[in-house]
User: Fold this.
Amino acid sequence: MRMRPRLCVWSLIVALSACAPNRPETPLAQTGHGSLPPGAAELEAVCGHTFRRPLAVQSVGHERMRKVIAEQVTRHSSDMQAAETFAKAFGFISTDTTVTTSASVDLIVEQIVGIYVPEDHSIYLRDGHHDDARMTQSIVLHEMTHALQSDTF
Assistant:
């Protein structure tokens, strides 16, 4: 599938954008308010930004993950329409293709094992995909980057 390299490029751009300079603040971990997953202090140090809110990490089953993703797709439907327009304009999908909400949810559910939801400041990890502790930490750190972006920008 041709999408995978493009997704990697977009993920890299998103991750790097969280590392732009920012005004100094007291990191949440130093204030004693709330909790952050392991690795938060290192991420703050590397990016030069600080978390402003506690961050929850939840392990959820396939159906709960599907519900979380469906809520996000519905909430951000204008973004999905823009993504469809972009995909058609650059030939990633046929111009006569209609991308439905259901198809978008199906595709996303099958391709991701973690998602950050800004509305409840939580990271959701799908059960059964984090047997390797290093892989789980990598997924959580990636999603924490999105949380840091949300707190910063």
